[in-house]
Each structure stands twice: as C-alpha cells, then as structure tokens.
Amino acid sequence: MTEDTKNKEVSLVGLTRKEIKESLRKFDIPDQQLNMRVNQIWGWVYNKGINSIDEMTTLSLGLREELKEYHNLERPLISDEQISKDGTKKWLLKFNDGSEVETVFIPDDERGTLCVSSQVGCTLNCTFCHTGTQRLVRNLTSQEIVSQIVIAKDSLGEWEEEPRQITNIVMMGMGEPLYNFESVRDGILTMSDDAGLSISKRKITLSTSGIVPKIKMAGDEIGSMLAISLHATNNDLRNEIVPINKKYPIEELLEACRNYPGLSNSKRITFEYVMLKGVNDSEAEARDLVKLISGIPAKINLIPFNSWPGSSYECSDWEQIEKFGDIVNRGGYASPIRTPRGEDISAACGQLKSDTKKVRASEKYKKELAKIESKRIGRL
User: Fold this and answer.
1) Is 337 exposed, middle or buried (CB count within 10 Å of its CB: 0-12, 13-18, 19+)?
2) Structural domains in the chain?
3) CB–CB of 98/357 below 8 Å?
4) How many degrees, rounded to 5, is the angle at CA 15 between CA 117 and CA 111?
5) Which of 125, 198, 232, 337 could form a disulfide with 237 if both were Cys (CB 3.0 to 4.6 A apart)?
6) Cβ distance 116 to 109 under 8 Å?
7) 361 pLDDT more than 70
8) Mean pLDDT, the chain, as a whole number?
C-alpha cells in the first residue's frame, strides 16, 4: 500500500458485503480467503455490534492495524433523543455532511417496530405529511440507512439481549423509498442477511406513495412486504392530497399492486389510509375503497391523522373511523386502526421532519465570502 492509495477513513458500519470485500482487496489477502474475512468482519459489525476494530479478535493483529488505517466503526451522531410518555423513542441523527434525519422506535407488547428514513426531506409534498414541507436535500446511502438500525440497537442495548426489542422494520420515515431505489434495496438486503442483523424480509415493510415503475422492481430485487400510501379512492381527491397521483393515477397503481411479485394471502399488501375529517372519511368512500382493491390480497391500515404546526387538516372523529373500519371489515378486509404513538414528541406517522436545508451553491459562496470578510475585519 502506498500513500497514493490510502483513503480517508470510512466506517464499516452500514457497508454491504460487496463494499467490504472491495475494500479488503487493498490488503495482501489471498483471493481464497476474502470471503472468510468478509464473513468475520460482518459478524463483528452486525452480529456483535462492536465499537472498535481492536475487538475483532478473529482477525490477525496485523490485519486489524491495516484496517484501522482505512476504516473505523463510527456511527452517525445523535443530535437529539426524545422519549414519549408511551415509550416511543425518536432519534435525530446527523451524518458526516451535517444532514439530519429522524428515526423512531415504537415498542409494543409482542413486537418493536423501527421506522427508518430513506431521504433527507422529500419531494412528494403530500399535503397531510409534515415531512413533505421539507424540501429534498439528498438521498441517503445504503450505509446511512443501515446505520439507523445500528444506532437504535446501540441505544436499546440490544446486541446481547434476547428476545430482540426490534422485531420489525418499516421504511416509512422521511422520504420516498422508491425514489432512492438502489440504496434502499442494498440497505434492506443488508438488514435481512442471516449472518448479521438477520431481520426477515417478512418483517420488513417498504412503504411507497405509488412510484409505479419501481413497484415490480421492488418485488423482484428486494422481496420485502409492500405498503401503499393510498389515502383516497378517486383520482381527483388523491391528486390533491398525494400529488404524485397526477403522474401515476390510481388505476396504474392498483394494476402494479395486482402484479406485485409473490403477492398472496400470506404476503398481503398493506394499504395505508390516513383519516382526514370531512375529506376522505365518509361511509361512501369506505364502500368505494372495498370495491377499488377487490381481488387484491390486502389489509387496510386506518391511520388517525396526527396534527402538526401549520396543517389545515383535522383527524376524523373516532366514531367515524370505527364506522369506516366496520364497512371495510364487512367487505372482507382487515382494517386495524393504528393507535397513535409518540405524538407528544412529534414521532407519529406523518410528523417527522429535520431542520436540514439544501444550501444553494451561490448562497454557500456568499457565506464563505462573509466568513473571509469577518476574519479580515478582525485583523484590522
């Protein structure tokens, strides 16, 4: 290895098997040993959750020293951590470039669900969602997606604990996962690897607002459970509250759902339906919903609207939500009402948002000039 080939230290946390293997090619490791070394590092990072390369005792001391020249086991910084009165935890995580996302853990009696973000901000502007009011800054890398799980396991002290606290993953945090397809795919494949984090794909749900061309790809290349943010039963209303519908209308979306690879009664699609008072919660719309998804193995999650500052919507009355659910149930579809969690810390569905903003190049240049001028004046 020469000074010319030496890279800035990169964390091993969140890397895929392929990325670790490519990195190891820098060292004098025989090709026939590469897979074994990848497996060893993989186990230490994703099974043991270690914090130091020195702890990788199945590697030779020499290899550990070489690894430390190029790599570390750093996690994203926790800018803030909040705990709801109902036990929900929310972390604001900061990455190396200063971008921040929110990640939420929702404990329940029999399971614990981690809500993971895929983008900093969002482009979709769904009118009921707080994240939609934050402009898209950038996609997360697969490493940054996976590192959210590692941070949560660290915080929960889960590495040596049985049974697990995190049993389910939902890609329902900030961003539209299918607009960051490759990173989300690689992240989910890393999460579900049996030798590491080992979270079954049946326990991982990818939620999309309806990026139709990517839905079949998700089934073929990812194979997780699928959730669709539907929220309306006709194009006129859905165009208003889920604007991506103007590009991919309901008819195209449902056709993609009917053709989702592996779809069956044991691998049902979840349709998410946020309950907005006087907007989409009538009994007629409940009947229309049943007709709309007829023939698709599915369940419908009814989500009471969670308010946020500046929103013009109100949550449907509980009695109306129950009437809506009863009609859907009678139509042959399970329609659980999602209990709001973490509302007091703005961690509930549709409430996630960070303060990260995209800085235009011209604005960044002006700020740098201002810093230089300030230093010049200080020297006078």
Assistant:
1) middle
2) 10-72 (1.10.150.530), 77-345 (3.20.20.70)
3) no
4) 50
5) 232
6) no
7) no
8) 88
Query: Has 102 been annotated as catalytic?
Result: yes
Q: Measure the CA–CA gap between 168 and 202, rounded to whole angstroms.
A: 9
Burial of 268 (0-12, 13-18, 19+ CB in 10 A): middle
User: DSSP labels for 276-334?
Assistant: BTTTT--HHHHHHHHHHTTTS-EEEEEEEPPP-TT----BPPHHHHHHHHHHHHHTT--
As a whole number of angstroms, the distance between CA 267 and CA 261 comes to: 10
Residue with more model confidence, 163 or 340: 163
Percent of the chain with pLDDT over 70: 87
Q: Within the chain, where are the H helices? A: 17-24, 31-43, 61-70, 142-156, 181-191, 212-221, 235-241, 250-258, 283-292, 318-330, 361-379
Which string of DSSP letters, residue by residue, matches 14-35? T--HHHHHHHHTTS---HHHHH
Closest CA to 310 of 351, 360, 255, 354: 351
**Catalytic residue selected from 100, 102, 176, 343:** 102
pLDDT digits (tens, 9 = 90+) for 158-188: 997 788 999 999 999 999 999 999 999 999 9
pLDDT at site 343: 65
Report which residue type is found at 296: I
Please, is 16 exposed, middle or buried when counting C-beta atoms within 10 Å of its C-beta (0-12, 13-18, 19+)?
middle
